[in-house]
Amino acid sequence: MTLNKNLVPGANVAAGAVLATINSRGMSGGDPNETAYQNMLAAKRELDRLTPLHRDGIVSTREYNQAEAEYNRAKTAYSGAQSGSQVVSNISGTVTQILVADGDFVEAGTPIVIVTQGKQFTLRADVPVRYISNIGDKLTGNVRFVGSERIFSLDSLNVKRQSATMSTMNGAYMPVYFKIDRPGADLNLIPGMTADIYLMGSGDNRSLVVPISAVSEQQGAYFVYVSLDEDCYRKTPVTLGRNDGMNVEILSGIQPGQDVVTEGMIFVKLAESSGAVPEGHTHNH
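Structure (tokenized):
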């Protein structure tokens, strides 16, 4: 396979532009395009043989028409090059990734180049099978793309659900597809990038939750700081449940109505670690 010499990541290509040329000479089973070429020549010879005979009434019109149809089929099957074929872009866009090197051997179906228009992306979430029944028609959630700490809600990105299919599985997961139309420049999306997706389906909404920023992790255990008065806090162990990337469910450790530190928790933790106050009874200065 030979790549177009001007093909580099970031290059703009037009629909129909040649991206690469594949030479199939010597391939196992023979060159299918070369075979199609030889079939076309043979059909042409047969048609040329029958044409004067049909004109003189020696062969029937039906036999002549069959030979002509066979030649047309053979001509359609031949791509126009005696060996190999061209890979063309079916859209106008920008080359974002070249998946093979010049001179590589490729098989039918091998991805070669990714061309994107930067206008529409498909987001796939692999959902554990046990949660599929909790996914309703009005699906909401949050997403954080790799390399970024920023979390976006699917609603704020105008993400539209395409389908949740029961026909395909990836191990114990089933895919749910979303479409992102014309994402903002601050997203900086690249085809193939990964993301953490937090889907919220139908179910019991009577849960005690706190912002993830309120939770401190220490040696595998989780804590929050409960406010006792204006300057005094108690370090309280908690058991965590599910989270949506922004808030986390508290299964045990605190009760509804208790005040916890949700912003600046790190400063309370640092004051505790400094040894200025006894552990478990922290003052915020």
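Confidence is low (pLDDT under 50) at residues 280-285. Residues 2-115 form a domain with the Helix Hairpins fold (CATH 1.10.287.470).
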